[in-house]
Amino acid sequence: MGKILKSILKINPDAKISVIDTGEIDTSTITWIDGTTPISNSDIVAQYSAVELDMAMEDLRVKRDRLIAETDYLALSDQTLSAEMSTYRQALRDITNGITTVEQANNVTWPTKP
């Protein structure tokens, strides 16, 4: 889903639209369907930074979830999870805490797998 569509849905989650997402705001690429009230270009653009952060956090969570999944077998009830692995998995779960900018999301320091 492109940035324009995500921005529109952030403003109006029930919007029914069709968008040709070229990356540029151009009202000619947005078709408002079923009486959805059009949103101004400036209001859509105003959501860009929030949408960019949402997208960066989504990417971060995907990588974090993959890294946790790679060690899930170690956390099964018939396994003994080492303190180092437990710390690593907790650090992965906490990786998104306090992130408020795209730059922070793109520059996290990943914990080292033991």
Describe the structure.
- The chain is mostly helical and 114 residues long.
- It folds into two domains: 44 residues, no CATH class; 59 residues.
- Helices cover 46% and strands 5% of the residues.
- The protein is elongated and about 60 Å long.
- The two termini are 36 Å apart.
- The model has no long low-confidence stretch (mean pLDDT 90).
Integer count of domains = 2
CA(first)-CA(last) distance: 36 Å
Share in helix: 40-55%
Work out the strand percent. Answer: 5-15%
The helix/strand class is mainly alpha
Q: Globular, elongated, flat, extended or rod-shaped: what is the shape?
A: elongated
Name the helix and strand elements from N-terminus to C-terminus, one letter apiece. Answer: HEEHHHH
Low-confidence stretches: none
Work out the radius of gyration. 20 Å
How many H/I helical runs? 5
Which whole number gives the mean pLDDT?
90
> Main sheet: which strands, in order across?
1-2
- Sketch the major β-sheet: 2 strands, antiparallel
Counted beta strands? 2
